[in-house]
Design goal:
With 489 residues, the chain is mostly helical. It has a single domain, classed as Amino acid/polyamine transporter I (Up-down Bundle), CATH 1.20.1740. The chain contains 18 helices and no strands. α5 packs antiparallel against α12. The longest helix is centred in the first third of the chain and has 34 residues. The two termini are 25 Å apart.
Length: 489
């Protein structure tokens, strides 16, 4: 998941009473262009080390969630976006109820509370290779980077800085495509020079080794890698023939996304043995190893700076996005207390960012307390995924109900076999959410109960209990007008 997964202007959460209008002839985009936009918003190298530990089996572990989650999410959200503006809040509010709509948009916001520590954990380990690779395994270093970088981002965002979004678009090329192509190319040369692959590449290794339910857990992280398709679906009405062009666009995007996910993961598995692989520093481990093979270690810090630059640009782009969306519907419906709805002189919801920052700081300190940095990174990634999956469960239910309750409502695109798609997507999302409570095989030495309590407390507490409290104790006086400066255009 990358910057474009999060609504940069909060528009995804704003209710609107009418269906989306079709684009004019001067606004059409091609299905290829939409595929490229989708690829840029989903593809990332950050998850590559997580799947590289499986070697050749990572192909299967990426393909399966693409078929049962990415494809249903893409097609179902396209129908919803082409019929109802206002994003997931509008869809779930009309399909189920307003309280469930609030829960859905809350989960879109809340997942970032755990997503930022996991993202900045990756930044910290990558940045370590610029200064001292030994720092990559230091919890204190990781916690310090998370806290300093996050609060720096809050300061930048609170000043209402414009034009930061451009950093994320350039990040696809700088921090994903170029390093990815270099990594895969040098990995092939590495094997071509006669070096043995660290992971076996035989037919017997196509499927992951079965070690009970715990062997399935790492696949949960791939659901987060593919999340955010409901944001890209808003562009379906800009296609000339959405019923024919959108499916082609999505299949092309799936192919490109899978290539960006799978090939670098394979390259890492060729170079770095699984038992030595760090889930946060694995990308830099692979670059360092392959550059050492060619005597080019001086390039390692340069690649590290490229990856860090892209990640930080993305973080700044969507730091304020989800919170702005939450602010807009909270002012209209009175879901949050006035303190959290307060704006600074630049029209930025600074109080929400500060409260979020306090929680992020506490989570960041956990990196200093948990002995294994990779373990902390994985736990926060799972919590992030589970909170977001709650929103997807609601979206699939809303789509089925809207097709039944409003069959004649104008839609620019109708997903084929909607009931089946929603059934597959709902089942896969629910299974992924439940599997996330099981410690992966890498945590065999730890306490399953402690793991369950941490993940369950984080996901269910933040994803369900906190929004329930806001909704339960809301007051009519919490409703406030939406200032013009935060109203999406």
């Amino acid at each position: 998941m990358s910057a474009a997964d999060i609504p940069a202007d909060g528009a995804a959460a704003v209710p609107a009473p009418v269906a989306r209008t079709r684009a004019t002839s001067t606004q059409w985009i091609s299905w290829v262009a939409l595929a490229m936009m989708t690829t840029s918003s989903v593809a990332s190298l950050r998850a590559a080390p997580t799947m590289a530990v499986y070697g050749l089996a990572c192909v299967f572990l990426y393909l399966l969630p693409a078929l049962v989650f990415l494809l249903p999410t893409s097609l179902v959200s396209a129908e919803l976006a082409s019929g109802w503006t206002g994003g997931v809040y509008k869809w779930v509010s009309e399909g189920i109820s307003k309280p469930m709509g609030f829960l859905a948009v809350w989960c879109q916001f809340a997942m970032t509370i755990f997503y930022y520590p996991s993202l900045l954990g990756f930044v910290a380990s990558t940045l370590a290779y610029v200064f001292n690779p030994d720092l990559a395994s230091s919890g204190v270093w990781t916690a310090a980077v998370i806290i300093v970088v996050y609060w720096s981002g809050v300061w930048v965002s609170s000043r209402g800085t414009k034009g930061v979004a451009g950093m994320a678009s350039g990040g696809l090329i700088i921090g994903t495509l170029i390093p990815g192509v270099v990594l895969v190319t040098l990995g092939i040369v590495f094997l071509g020079d006669g070096n043995p692959s660290a992971a076996p590449m035989t037919a017997e290794n196509i499927l992951p080794a079965w070690a009970g339910l715990s062997s399935l857990v790492l696949i949960v992280n791939n659901f987060l890698s593919y999340s955010g398709m409901e944001m890209n679906a808003v562009h379906v009405s800009s296609l000339k023939k959405p019923d024919k062009e959108f499916p082609k666009s999505m299949f092309l995007a799936m192919g490109m996304v899978l290539a960006i996910f799978i090939l670098p993961a394979l390259a890492i598995s060729w170079i770095v043995p699984a038992e030595q692989l760090s889930l946060t520093a694995g990308v830099m481990q692979a670059f360092d190893a392959v550059f050492s093979n060619f005597g080019w270690q001086w390039l390692t810090p340069i690649v590290g700076i490229m990856l860090v630059t892209a990640s930080l640009g993305g973080m700044l782009t969507w730091l304020a996005g989800p919170s702005k969306g939450l602010l807009l519907i909270s002012r209209q419906e009175g879901y949050l207390p006035p303190f959290l709805q307060r704006l600074n002189k630049n029209g930025v919801q600074q109080n929400i960012l500060v409260v979020q920052g306090v929680v992020t700081t506490v989570i960041g300190l956990a990196y200093a307390l948990i002995p294994n940095v990779s373990s902390a990174y994985w736990i926060f990634s799972v919590i992030t995924t589970q909170v977001y999956l709650i929103m997807y469960l609601l979206m699939f239910v809303a789509a089925v109900r809207l097709r039944r309750l409003q069959p004649d409502h104008r839609r620019g695109y109708r997903a084929p076999m909607l009931l089946g798609l929603c059934g597959v997507g709902f089942g896969a999302s629910l299974a992924a959410l439940l599997v996330g409570f099981i410690p992966p095989s890498q945590f065999a030495s730890g306490s399953p109960l402690v793991y369950f309590l941490i993940v369950g407390g984080g996901a269910l507490g933040l994803g369900l209990f906190v929004p329930f409290l806001f909704y339960r104790f809301r007051k009519p006086s919490w409703k406030q007008p939406v200032p013009e400066e935060v109203t999406p255009s």
